[in-house]
Amino acid sequence: MQADIVNSLSQLLARAHSETLAFPTNVNTALRLQQELGNPDCHAADIHRLLLSEPGLSARAVSLANSVMFAHGHTPTVTSVRAAVERLGYRNLLSLATAAVIRQMNTGIKDAALRAKAAQLWAHSVHVAALAHEIARTMTHVDPDTAVFAGIVHEVGGLYLLAEADKTPGLYQQLETQMAPVLEIVGRALMRQLIVPGQVADAVVTLPGATVLLPPAGLRDTLLLAKAIAPVASPLPQMPSAVNERLQQFLDQDPMLQELRNNPAAEAKELIAVLLA
């Protein structure tokens, strides 16, 4: 059994190095949509067709288009996928499609403990994405849409590993002892396969063990702050962020962070509801 586990881990790392990590068939439509949206020459007709073929994703697109984040004042209610696409734009649709790919990777997990970890890790990712949007908008002044996308993908390696561990009993226990390096290798490979922009991938891979610079600035600090105040923690053993006394004081006392922690904006709450639906 131990030899089988080691062999499975070796094969997984080999696929990561060759960028041939397989996705389950149930994500094919969302994956094609995600890849099409990442293509600068994509056609609107193809986007509409792919979105309509994924009912759950279509419903989330319409719901997000009608959320406080995108429906301002007396904006008419969106009732069609085409109108949702026009209101959200391709960048926000890319975030939704990528979220669908990542989330659906774990829908078939049979082991109850691994399934619970996957659900918690996805909830953590969603809260980080929503909080990162608010932190980017009000504190670090990076692009809020980029911050949302980065939050969605920042734990993709862990979610993929949980799905893989479900296929080989004992693999997760083996992974626990070497989680950090495996997460980095698999996470990098997945982000390349998902065509994650370089600035997002660079920020994500530098998160383990990193510390927030004061005053916080940039995408990495945005994600680190969001992870620090997220109400749902990652269930995976990872290298903790470095927190010195000055940073801890900032986390505990900054009024903007305390407001986000205790009373998230309506935009954040609705984004969390859409992504967890």
Description of the molecule:
The structure is a single chain. Helix content is 68%, strand content 0%. The chain has 277 residues and is mostly helical. The chain has 2 domains: 185 residues, Orthogonal Bundle (Hypothetical protein af1432); 80 residues, no CATH class. The radius of gyration is 19 Å and the shape is globular. The chain starts with a helix and ends with a helix. InterPro entries: HDOD, RNase_Y/CdgJ.
Order of helices and strands: HHHHHHHHHHHHHHH
Beta-strand content:
under 5%
Mean pLDDT: 92
Q: How many beta strands in the DSSP annotation?
A: 0
What is the CATH level 1 assignment of the largest domain?
Mainly Alpha
What fraction, in percent, of the residue positions are helical? 55-70%
Q: Biggest β-sheet: count, sense, barrel?
A: none
CATH fold type of the largest domain: Hypothetical protein af1432
Number of helical regions = 15
Q: Could you tell me how far the N terminus lies from the C terminus, measured between alpha carbons in angstroms?
A: 38 Å
